[in-house]
Amino acid sequence: MLNKTTDTLRSYGFQVEMDDFGSGYSSLNMLKELSVDRIKLDLRFLTGPGFEDKGQIILSYLIQMFQLLGIDLLAEGVETLEQANFLKEKGCVEMQGFYFHKPMSVIDFEDII
């Protein structure tokens, strides 16, 4: 049923994204069952204890897996140059987070562009 809905949306030009991958209902099992165009990676992969060790290994393989599956990846919660460089080095080119800019109003955004 869900794949039928996503296929219909795609036929109208929409893309299907899975948000907060790595938390809650966004899981590897969902990737087997649902065809998505983009994954938004939960920021917890980049922050907190373990990023220096296990987190980097897990993230490296996730990025590689998404590339092999033809799924675009957006890393949320990038807060440091180190995180941005790590992601770029591994092939993740879409990122968002405080490292790039803090949230702002539409008026402030228009002022900086």
TrEMBL record:
A matching Pfam family: EAL
Coiled coil ranges: none
GO terms of molecular function: cyclic-guanylate-specific phosphodiesterase activity
Boundaries of every EAL domain copy: 1-113
Transmembrane segments: none
CDD domains: EAL (cd01948)
SMART domains: EAL
PANTHER family (alphabetical): CYCLIC DI-GMP PHOSPHODIESTERASE PDEF, SIGNALING PROTEIN YKOW
Record-given protein name: EAL domain-containing protein
Organism field: Pseudobutyrivibrio xylanivorans
